[in-house]
Write a structure and sequence with these properties.
This protein is mostly beta strands. About 0% of the residues lie in helices and about 50% in strands. It has no helices and 17 strands.
């Protein structure tokens, strides 16, 4: 897909002599991962894997955030941001699918409510689904129920996995949560009470799955006006 389909303004912040490729850590927020270090907006978890800035793939600019798994144990590789309070709005990120056609790891974008664990929304890949992307809302995994791939289930979308960049978006509005892939809504849940306070970019999965790499770029968060910081 064309990179021009998803663009986030790249801002540079100079802090203590370090050039960061993002806006300051306030709402709204965007990160183009163009800096010399990963911006401290993100808390990293690197169990059997690493999160680094990389020039190997990029959606725009010259860098992205690379997640690479390693052998030896349960992979838990996260870049997480925890907001100081609950919010609603739209979170988007460009994701590079490195291994379509292969069963590797769970990869993608997840929004969570740390106070109500069942209030979760996610879009990306399942480790057992080599052919179709997933999207779900709620801990019971309700989603599009598309008949796609070898193991269709409640989370399965009708969007087939392909090599290269895809844009994942999750939008919490006043009365619903909607998930989009490449600008097309694949699932909407009418859940007015949902909010989130945690954003996770991740790859994770069991030790016996093969290693893989994922790239994320052009992250953005735009709050609903009602929830924007005053």
């Amino acid at each position: 897909m064309s990179r021009t389909c998803f663009s986030v303004a790249i801002s540079a912040v100079v802090l203590a002599g370090v050039a960061w490729g993002s806006t300051p850590p306030v709402e709204p927020f965007s990160d183009s991962f163009e800096g010399t270090q990963i911006y401290p907006y993100w808390a990293l978890t690197q169990d059997y894997g690493t999160v680094t800035l990389s020039k190997d793939q990029f959606y725009s600019g010259a860098k992205s955030l690379e997640f690479a798994s390693a052998s030896g144990g349960e992979r838990t590789i996260y870049a997480t941001h925890k907001f100081p309070r609950h919010t609603k709005g739209t979170v988007s990120v460009a994701f590079y699918d490195y291994a379509p056609g292969q069963e590797t790891l769970y990869e993608g974008l997840t929004l969570e409510d740390s106070a109500v664990q069942s209030h979760v929304a996610s879009v990306g890949t399942n480790d057992y689904d080599a052919y179709c992307y997933k999207a779900f809302v709620g801990s019971d995994g309700q989603g599009p129920h598309a008949n796609c791939g070898q193991y269709p289930g409640s989370e399965t979308t009708n969007v087939k996995r392909t090599l290269g960049w895809h844009v994942f978006s999750i939008s919490y509005d006043v009365s619903s949560v909607s998930i989009a892939i490449d600008g097309t809504v694949v699932y909407t849940a009418n859940v007015a009470g949902y909010e989130f306070d945690t954003v996770i970019l991740s790859i994770d999965g069991p030790y016996w799955r093969p290693n893989t790499i994922a790239y994320f770029d052009n992250f953005s968060f735009e709050p609903l006006p009602l929830y924007a910081k005053q």
